[in-house]
Amino acid sequence: MKSGCKVVDQIGELEIVGNIVPHLWYKNITFSSGKAHFVAITLLADIVYWYRPTMIRDESGMIVGARTKFKGDMLQKSYQAFADTYGFTKRQVKDGIDFLVDHHLLVREFRTISSSNIILSNVMYVQPISENIKRVMDERCNMTELTSVCPPVTLERTSPSASNDDLSRHEEGAPEMDEGTYTESTSKNPSEKNEQQQHAGECPVTFFKENEFGRLGSYMQGKIKSWCERLSDSLVVEAMKRAVEQGKHYWSYVDAILVKWELLQVRDVKDAREKEKQVKPYKKTIGRAGRKPVRTEMLPDWFTEEGIVEAPAESFDEDFELEKAKLMAELEAYRKHRDVVVM
Asked: What angle do the packed helices 79-86 and 90-102 form, to 10 degrees?
């Protein structure tokens, strides 16, 4: 069937496979400023593509079934794999995934996969929340109204190990293992891994409410979201934790911590602690009774330790006599001038 336009017919013959981005995502998936979050939209479109079923056809071309594009119960893909695919930085991908998780569009899990030959720690798995994705495709969607929807627990999800065959199989179109199929290196100690996973699972808005930082209106939600976009959710939560430890349950204290971390270009909680150790506290020198220190001048050699001036008598008398003679001459000249005027 022809449309009557040559180019349209040619494009219609192309087999285009890949991501599909609904136009309403650019309106609904946005920063607090209202601008579209292009990184988050791109990542979500890629993840949704992987969760679209692949149709199984028989020899006649009839659809006889469907299967997933990946192995296992969830899609396994690392920050680096996303970054390599789309040309983003790893930090941009991390922030984009955080954004999708915080707005209940994505579920993220970190697992340890083990076998007889290899152990992979912090392997990231992601899964879209279909109910909320359907809602952001609505013209009247408000992302702040999206609620968390936990996926059902499956037998595969609770299994801590995987066979050699499972580790050797790759997802359809997924990168190889050496291209970043797991998110973090195994050189980190367990305490650091647990801490990172704990921070990744905490919601700044929830922490704000539970620790009574004040009334959470639209303005404060915007402030929190703005800092989450500029730094990260984990750093915002860490700043609020420090405020709680100091007994200062008000946002201005948290905001001051975040401003300092932004100036120090802090990347994560561990980086914040390391950089704060390197910064020496500034101590202002204050004089007695809170006054500024008195400025001291260099004293001449003839000034003794007792503070008594011992200038030579002769030089003192000569200077005095010269000044005296000068004044007397000026006085005499004045008198003569006055006498002339009177006469």
From this structure: 110
Amino acid at 90: K
Report how far residue 130's alpha carbon sits from residue 137's, in angstroms, rounded to the nearest whole number: 11
Rounded to whole angstroms, how far apart are CA atoms 31 and 38? 10
> What's at 294, amino acid-wise?
V
List the beta bridge partners of residue 57. Answer: 63
pLDDT digits (tens, 9 = 90+) for 52-99: 898 888 888 888 888 888 888 899 999 999 999 999 999 999 999 999
Q: Would the pTM of this model clear 0.90, i.e. be above it?
A: no
Using left for φ > 0, alpha for ψ between -120 and 50, and beta otherwise, residue 7 falls in alpha
Q: Where are the domains of the chain?
A: 11-187, 199-287
Give the separation between CA 151 and CA 73, rounded to whole angstroms.
11
Fold exhibited by the domain 199-287:
Arc Repressor Mutant, subunit A (1.10.10)
**Alpha helices (H) in the chain, listed in sequence order:** 6-12, 25-28, 38-51, 79-86, 90-102, 130-135, 155-158, 164-168, 190-200, 204-210, 218-230, 233-245, 251-263, 269-278, 313-342
